[in-house]
Amino acid sequence: MTPSSRARSVLLALAALLALAGCGEEKPAEKPHTEESRKAPQTQAKIPIGKGFDFYVLSLSWSPSWCAENDASGKTQQCRRGNDYGFIMHGLWPQNERGYPEFCRTRESDRVPDSLGRTVLDIIPSMGLIGHQWRKHGSCSGLSQRDYFSVVRAARERIHIPKSLEPQRDDISAAPDAMEQALIASNPGLDRKGIAVTCAGGQLEEIRICMTPDLGFRPCPEIDRAACRAKTIQQPSIR
User: Fold this and answer.
1) Which of 31, 88, 195, 233 has the smallest count of CB within 10 Å of its CB?
2) Which of 216, 88, 92 is nearest to 147 (CA)?
3) For the segment 144-162, what is each residue's pLDDT rounded down to a tens digit?
Protein backbone atom coordinates (compact mmCIF):
# COMPACT_ATOMS: atom_id res chain seq x y z
CA MET A 1 0.00 0.00 0.00
CA THR A 2 1.43 3.33 -1.02
CA PRO A 3 1.69 6.25 1.46
CA SER A 4 -1.11 8.09 -0.32
CA SER A 5 -3.38 4.99 -0.07
CA ARG A 6 -2.67 4.68 3.66
CA ALA A 7 -3.53 8.36 4.17
CA ARG A 8 -6.84 7.94 2.36
CA SER A 9 -7.66 4.88 4.50
CA VAL A 10 -6.99 6.80 7.72
CA LEU A 11 -9.18 9.70 6.61
CA LEU A 12 -12.05 7.36 5.68
CA ALA A 13 -11.77 5.60 9.05
CA LEU A 14 -11.91 8.93 10.93
CA ALA A 15 -14.94 10.01 8.91
CA ALA A 16 -16.74 6.78 9.77
CA LEU A 17 -16.00 7.22 13.48
CA LEU A 18 -17.33 10.80 13.46
CA ALA A 19 -20.51 9.67 11.70
CA LEU A 20 -21.09 6.97 14.32
CA ALA A 21 -20.54 9.46 17.14
CA GLY A 22 -23.12 11.80 15.63
CA CYS A 23 -25.69 9.03 15.39
CA GLY A 24 -25.27 8.30 19.08
CA GLU A 25 -26.21 11.81 20.25
CA GLU A 26 -29.64 12.07 21.85
CA LYS A 27 -31.88 14.78 20.43
CA PRO A 28 -34.45 16.45 22.72
CA ALA A 29 -37.83 14.80 22.37
CA GLU A 30 -40.42 16.99 20.65
CA LYS A 31 -43.71 17.41 22.46
CA PRO A 32 -46.60 15.94 20.48
CA HIS A 33 -49.08 18.48 19.09
CA THR A 34 -52.24 17.20 20.66
CA GLU A 35 -55.66 18.61 19.86
CA GLU A 36 -55.77 20.18 23.33
CA SER A 37 -52.41 21.92 22.96
CA ARG A 38 -53.43 23.37 19.61
CA LYS A 39 -56.71 24.70 20.95
CA ALA A 40 -55.54 26.06 24.33
CA PRO A 41 -54.05 29.42 23.20
CA GLN A 42 -57.13 30.31 21.16
CA THR A 43 -59.79 29.32 23.69
CA GLN A 44 -58.16 30.27 27.00
CA ALA A 45 -59.39 33.88 26.99
CA LYS A 46 -62.50 33.37 24.87
CA ILE A 47 -65.85 34.68 26.07
CA PRO A 48 -69.23 34.02 24.48
CA ILE A 49 -70.19 36.82 22.08
CA GLY A 50 -73.82 37.91 22.17
CA LYS A 51 -75.86 39.28 19.28
CA GLY A 52 -78.86 41.48 18.59
CA PHE A 53 -77.54 44.59 20.38
CA ASP A 54 -74.73 47.15 20.04
CA PHE A 55 -72.96 47.09 23.40
CA TYR A 56 -73.30 46.27 27.10
CA VAL A 57 -73.81 48.57 30.05
CA LEU A 58 -72.14 47.15 33.15
CA SER A 59 -73.99 48.50 36.18
CA LEU A 60 -72.38 48.40 39.63
CA SER A 61 -74.71 49.38 42.47
CA TRP A 62 -73.37 50.88 45.70
CA SER A 63 -74.88 48.45 48.20
CA PRO A 64 -74.96 50.72 51.33
CA SER A 65 -77.05 53.30 49.43
CA TRP A 66 -79.49 50.66 48.20
CA CYS A 67 -79.81 49.05 51.64
CA ALA A 68 -80.41 52.37 53.40
CA GLU A 69 -83.28 53.08 51.01
CA ASN A 70 -84.77 49.60 50.61
CA ASP A 71 -83.78 47.35 53.52
CA ALA A 72 -82.59 49.36 56.50
CA SER A 73 -83.46 46.50 58.88
CA GLY A 74 -81.10 44.11 57.07
CA LYS A 75 -83.53 41.32 56.24
CA THR A 76 -81.94 40.43 52.91
CA GLN A 77 -78.57 38.75 52.51
CA GLN A 78 -77.16 41.80 50.75
CA CYS A 79 -78.01 44.15 53.61
CA ARG A 80 -77.39 41.82 56.55
CA ARG A 81 -74.87 43.19 59.03
CA GLY A 82 -71.42 41.68 58.63
CA ASN A 83 -71.64 41.09 54.87
CA ASP A 84 -69.98 44.44 54.13
CA TYR A 85 -70.86 44.62 50.44
CA GLY A 86 -69.57 47.63 48.55
CA PHE A 87 -70.28 47.57 44.83
CA ILE A 88 -72.47 44.70 43.73
CA MET A 89 -73.26 43.71 40.19
CA HIS A 90 -76.65 45.21 39.40
CA GLY A 91 -76.53 43.87 35.87
CA LEU A 92 -74.98 43.58 32.44
CA TRP A 93 -77.45 45.16 30.04
CA PRO A 94 -77.51 44.73 26.26
CA GLN A 95 -77.90 48.23 24.84
CA ASN A 96 -78.52 49.83 21.45
CA GLU A 97 -77.06 53.14 20.33
CA ARG A 98 -80.47 54.52 21.26
CA GLY A 99 -82.53 52.75 23.85
CA TYR A 100 -82.29 49.12 24.82
CA PRO A 101 -84.15 45.82 24.35
CA GLU A 102 -85.82 44.15 27.30
CA PHE A 103 -87.79 41.00 28.16
CA CYS A 104 -86.90 39.33 24.86
CA ARG A 105 -88.38 36.05 23.71
CA THR A 106 -85.97 33.15 24.06
CA ARG A 107 -86.00 29.37 24.14
CA GLU A 108 -84.35 29.50 27.56
CA SER A 109 -86.40 29.18 30.73
CA ASP A 110 -87.48 32.34 32.57
CA ARG A 111 -86.25 30.76 35.78
CA VAL A 112 -82.55 30.61 36.57
CA PRO A 113 -81.73 27.26 38.24
CA ASP A 114 -80.35 27.52 41.77
CA SER A 115 -77.23 25.61 40.70
CA LEU A 116 -76.43 28.30 38.13
CA GLY A 117 -77.49 31.25 40.27
CA ARG A 118 -75.20 30.18 43.09
CA THR A 119 -72.18 30.56 40.78
CA VAL A 120 -72.67 34.36 40.76
CA LEU A 121 -74.11 34.94 44.24
CA ASP A 122 -70.80 36.45 45.36
CA ILE A 123 -71.21 39.34 42.90
CA ILE A 124 -75.05 39.44 42.68
CA PRO A 125 -76.08 38.55 46.24
CA SER A 126 -79.76 37.85 45.54
CA MET A 127 -81.39 35.02 43.63
CA GLY A 128 -84.32 37.35 42.98
CA LEU A 129 -82.05 39.91 41.32
CA ILE A 130 -80.25 37.18 39.36
CA GLY A 131 -83.56 35.93 37.95
CA HIS A 132 -84.79 39.45 37.19
CA GLN A 133 -81.57 40.36 35.37
CA TRP A 134 -81.86 37.29 33.19
CA ARG A 135 -85.51 37.86 32.29
CA LYS A 136 -85.22 41.59 31.58
CA HIS A 137 -81.69 41.85 30.14
CA GLY A 138 -79.97 38.49 29.69
CA SER A 139 -82.81 37.22 27.51
CA CYS A 140 -81.86 39.94 24.98
CA SER A 141 -78.16 38.97 24.81
CA GLY A 142 -78.57 36.16 22.26
CA LEU A 143 -76.82 33.87 24.76
CA SER A 144 -77.88 30.89 26.83
CA GLN A 145 -78.31 31.45 30.56
CA ARG A 146 -75.00 29.74 31.30
CA ASP A 147 -73.10 31.77 28.70
CA TYR A 148 -74.74 35.03 29.76
CA PHE A 149 -73.71 34.61 33.39
CA SER A 150 -70.19 33.62 32.37
CA VAL A 151 -70.00 36.95 30.52
CA VAL A 152 -71.43 38.71 33.60
CA ARG A 153 -68.58 37.22 35.65
CA ALA A 154 -65.96 38.14 33.05
CA ALA A 155 -67.27 41.71 32.82
CA ARG A 156 -67.09 42.18 36.60
CA GLU A 157 -63.56 40.82 36.70
CA ARG A 158 -62.60 43.28 33.97
CA ILE A 159 -63.21 46.22 36.33
CA HIS A 160 -60.75 47.23 39.03
CA ILE A 161 -62.25 49.27 41.87
CA PRO A 162 -59.72 51.82 43.19
CA LYS A 163 -59.01 51.91 46.91
CA SER A 164 -60.69 55.31 47.27
CA LEU A 165 -64.04 53.72 46.29
CA GLU A 166 -63.79 50.57 48.40
CA PRO A 167 -66.12 50.17 51.42
CA GLN A 168 -65.21 52.42 54.37
CA ARG A 169 -66.32 52.64 58.00
CA ASP A 170 -67.21 56.31 57.65
CA ASP A 171 -69.29 58.18 55.08
CA ILE A 172 -67.29 59.93 52.38
CA SER A 173 -68.18 62.99 50.34
CA ALA A 174 -66.68 63.33 46.88
CA ALA A 175 -67.34 64.85 43.48
CA PRO A 176 -68.80 62.44 40.89
CA ASP A 177 -66.10 63.66 38.48
CA ALA A 178 -63.41 62.62 40.96
CA MET A 179 -64.99 59.17 41.27
CA GLU A 180 -65.00 58.80 37.50
CA GLN A 181 -61.39 59.93 37.30
CA ALA A 182 -60.32 57.39 39.93
CA LEU A 183 -61.97 54.59 37.95
CA ILE A 184 -60.42 55.77 34.70
CA ALA A 185 -56.97 55.83 36.29
CA SER A 186 -57.45 52.26 37.57
CA ASN A 187 -58.80 50.82 34.31
CA PRO A 188 -56.58 51.43 31.27
CA GLY A 189 -58.61 52.09 28.13
CA LEU A 190 -61.60 53.52 29.98
CA ASP A 191 -62.35 57.20 29.36
CA ARG A 192 -64.89 59.79 30.44
CA LYS A 193 -67.16 59.17 27.44
CA GLY A 194 -67.73 55.56 28.46
CA ILE A 195 -68.62 55.89 32.15
CA ALA A 196 -71.35 57.49 34.24
CA VAL A 197 -71.63 57.87 38.01
CA THR A 198 -75.31 58.13 38.96
CA CYS A 199 -76.78 59.52 42.17
CA ALA A 200 -80.11 59.76 44.00
CA GLY A 201 -80.96 61.92 46.97
CA GLY A 202 -77.40 63.26 47.14
CA GLN A 203 -75.91 59.77 47.48
CA LEU A 204 -73.86 57.56 45.19
CA GLU A 205 -76.22 55.18 43.43
CA GLU A 206 -74.41 53.36 40.63
CA ILE A 207 -71.41 53.30 38.33
CA ARG A 208 -72.25 52.43 34.73
CA ILE A 209 -69.52 51.45 32.28
CA CYS A 210 -70.01 50.76 28.58
CA MET A 211 -68.43 47.68 27.01
CA THR A 212 -68.31 46.09 23.59
CA PRO A 213 -69.75 42.56 23.20
CA ASP A 214 -66.21 41.23 23.76
CA LEU A 215 -65.87 43.43 26.87
CA GLY A 216 -63.63 46.17 25.58
CA PHE A 217 -64.30 49.72 26.78
CA ARG A 218 -66.17 52.05 24.42
CA PRO A 219 -67.91 55.46 24.43
CA CYS A 220 -71.69 55.69 24.92
CA PRO A 221 -73.08 59.26 24.72
CA GLU A 222 -76.58 58.30 25.85
CA ILE A 223 -75.29 56.73 29.07
CA ASP A 224 -72.77 59.51 29.68
CA ARG A 225 -75.51 62.15 29.47
CA ALA A 226 -77.37 60.45 32.34
CA ALA A 227 -74.46 60.94 34.78
CA CYS A 228 -74.92 62.72 38.10
CA ARG A 229 -74.54 66.51 37.77
CA ALA A 230 -74.16 67.27 41.48
CA LYS A 231 -70.91 68.89 42.57
CA THR A 232 -70.56 66.58 45.58
CA ILE A 233 -72.33 63.40 46.66
CA GLN A 234 -72.10 61.15 49.68
CA GLN A 235 -70.80 57.61 49.55
CA PRO A 236 -72.44 55.95 52.57
CA SER A 237 -70.28 53.68 54.68
CA ILE A 238 -70.91 50.01 55.39
CA ARG A 239 -72.84 49.46 58.61
Assistant:
1) 31
2) 92
3) 999 999 999 999 999 999 9
